[in-house]
Structures are given as C-alpha cells and as structure tokens.
Amino acid sequence: MKNSLWSKNFTIITWGTVISAVGGVGLNFALSVLIYNKTSSTLLTAIFAAVSMIPNFVLPLFIGPLIDRFPRRKIIYCSDFLMSIMFMIIAYITRDGFFDYTFYLIVALVVSINGVIYSITYESFFPELIPEGQIQKGYAISSLIYPTVNTIMFPVAALIFEKYGVSFIFLLEAVLLFIAACFETQIRIDDKSV
Known about the structure:
Blueprint (H helix, E strand, L loop, with lengths): L7 H32 L2 H17 L1 H8 L4 H22 L7 H29 L5 H30 L1 H19 L10
Helix pairs in contact: 1-2, 1-5, 1-6, 1-7, 2-5, 3-5, 4-5, 4-7, 6-7
C-alpha cells in the first residue's frame, strides 16, 4: 500500500503556508501601494522595495548555520507568532492613518529578515514532512502555492486596501499568521536538526 501524500504533517505545513502566503502577498502589495500613494515618488517606492530585498541577498549566508542549531518546527511557529504580534501592534499604530516613511522602511526590513529566516527553515524542514515516496508530488504542490496565491490575492488585496486601508490589512495578516502558527504547532516530527 502506498503512503498518502496528505499525511497530517504535510497537510498542516501546506495549509500553514497557504494561510501565511495569503496574508503576505496582500501585505506586500498594500505596503507598496501605500508608500507610492503617500510619497508620490517612484524613487522612494523603489528604495522601499530595495530595502525589503536586501536581507534576501545578505542573510542566507549567515542564517543557515544558526538555524541548524535550533528545532526548525519551533522556529517556524515562533516566527509566525512573533510576526502576528508585531502586525497587531502595527495595525493599532496605523488605525488612524499614521504614516512615516522611515517607520515603514523598518517594518519592511524586519518583515524581510523574518521572511528569510522562515524561508530557510521551511526549505530545510519541508522534505522531512513529505511522506516517503511522495517527494515529487509534495514539491509539486508546494511550488503551486505562491503563484496561485499571487494570482488570487493581488486583486483581493487591492479591494481590501481600497475599502478598509492598510491598518485592516495589518490586522488581517496578524490573524492569518496566528492561525498558521497554531496549525504549525501541531506538526509532530522528530526534528533532526538538533
């Protein structure tokens, strides 16, 4: 009898990733639009985008060896819980239309750093969550998540941003990350990284 791809651990990490991706795509879109709307500057918007990309180039060289010293399951759900708390605080701060370019640059940098840590941890942990003999199917499903979410979420994020503003998107992202982290705490596996 063949193992089913949709084991408990694989299902949890997949749904956690989908939930996290939905909020992440919406938030990235909303922040870019907000920066441009408030500054009317393509240069400042480009600087914002560049700052949020810097950790993707620099951190992987240093973060990988550190991640190997800690339980990856815990890094994944703690990362989502911490970002959920941060986004809840930011939703509160921005509820009355607060805007400060430097503040949003720092937010983008923190989100990007967290994203790098999460991504490297996920990539090293994911193969252990795929049932034996199902690696190809597991990666096929995983590779569809972000393109599908991008296609669906850009127009949805635009509507939410237009109707409710960026504060609501921060709050929505906080709730989605909290749900994803709750799912991820249910992963049961002997983490071989420690």
